[in-house]
Amino acid sequence: MTIKVALVDDQVLFRAGIAMVVRSQPDLELVGEAGDGADAIDLVRRARPDVVLMDVRMPRVDGVAATRRIRVNATEHSPRVLVLTTFDLDESAADAIDAGASGFILKDTQPELLLAAIRAVADGSQVVAAGATRSLFDRFKTRTAAAPGPEYDALTAREREILLRAATGLSNAEIASVETLSEATVKTHVSRILAKLQLRDRVQLVVYAYEHGLL
Q: Is 206 a residue whose pLDDT tops 90?
């Protein structure tokens, strides 16, 4: 299945380079470009991309605000946002995660890693720039932890175990190995956990675990 990609960045030359990389792949289709967060909203409505590559720092409407507007009232078919940033500890990137982004990568990431990140986000996974994961989620950990609500009580004992393992960054395959389950079963459990907790993806799952003192 072809993954439709939209690109939002105020630097024309940077967009041209990323567009070339995306167009080189048979399973990716570049469906549009925008140079500002405000234009990104219209682009998403028109082109209906699966993944939006979003620069976090732009004039007028920045990537955080644009991400929030794209992801508000998001459904299963809403586009996922992968934020592009210059610094791996950029506070704005963390703000974008709060706003609904599925992760962020550095602008100088190698092309093959960018392509892998696009595919991972389209598949529902989270992507965080290498080396930034701990610093990013330490930001959420510093908040006063709130006790989990009734949504957590709805989880089974097995789902709680898988929630904690996923929150520590284990992949479905790694969880399957530890829990002695099939990868398909783990994927089903993760989907049920996200549904019960009303979370959109694994990034929010990690944030949920930190904010509620589960880690």
A: no
